[in-house]
Write a structure and sequence with these properties.
The chain is mainly beta and 164 residues long. It has a single domain, classed as 6 Propeller (Neuraminidase), CATH 2.120.10.30. 6% of the residues lie in helices and 44% in strands. It is built from one helix and twelve strands; from the N terminus they run ββββββββββββα. The longest helix is centred in the last third of the chain and has 10 residues.
Length: 164
């Protein structure tokens, strides 16, 4: 069970046992989202517009698969799992995805299975992948998560990204 505070909604709980995301107000709990078949909710993030990003994990073929689902209230608005070439964006494995929205609406995701930070635009397309290595240098990078996600987000906000 993961508890998060979503600014426009209040305290929320993603429960992997019941496969739901619930909103907790005072002592009452209201189920907001039921996860689709074969998927389990884990992490949560709220956007400035009030949408909720939910990290979903599945275990279909002895590999943990990941996707991010964007909900507007109870309605599924978007699923992010593959790039434009139909390749998985997130690495399979038991690691979690930590998500945050930066100032221009991009989704910054720390993929702990791959030890990288992925930045997605509003449409879910990959803008960049950062593994901590400057070009042609071999060093190990573990993405900063949880308490330090604001630092990662602020670093990514100050980076100028050129795409061709």
């Amino acid at each position: 069970m993961v508890t998060s505070y979503l600014p426009k909604i209040g305290r929320s709980v993603s429960d992997s046992n019941s496969k739901t995301v619930s909103i907790v107000k005072r002592l009452n709990s209201e189920t907001l989202i039921d996860a689709p078949d074969y998927w389990t909710p884990w992490g949560l993030c709220c956007t400035r517009s009030g949408d909720i990003f939910v990290h979903m994990m599945s275990f279909p073929l002895r590999e943990y698969m990941h996707k991010i689902a964007r909900y507007q209230g109870e309605s599924l608005k978007q699923e992010i799992d593959n790039d434009e070439y139909d390749n998985p964006i997130f690495k399979t494995g038991f690691g979690l995805l930590y998500m945050s929205e930066n100032n221009n609406g991009d989704i910054c995701v720390s993929d702990t299975s791959a030890n990288i930070v992925i930045v997605l635009d509003k449409a879910g397309r990959v803008r960049l992948r950062y593994d901590g290595r400057p070009a042609r240098r071999m060093t190990y990078f573990v993405p900063v998560v949880s308490l330090y996600m604001r630092l990662v987000r602020s670093l990514l906000q100050t980076m100028t990204v050129y795409t061709y």
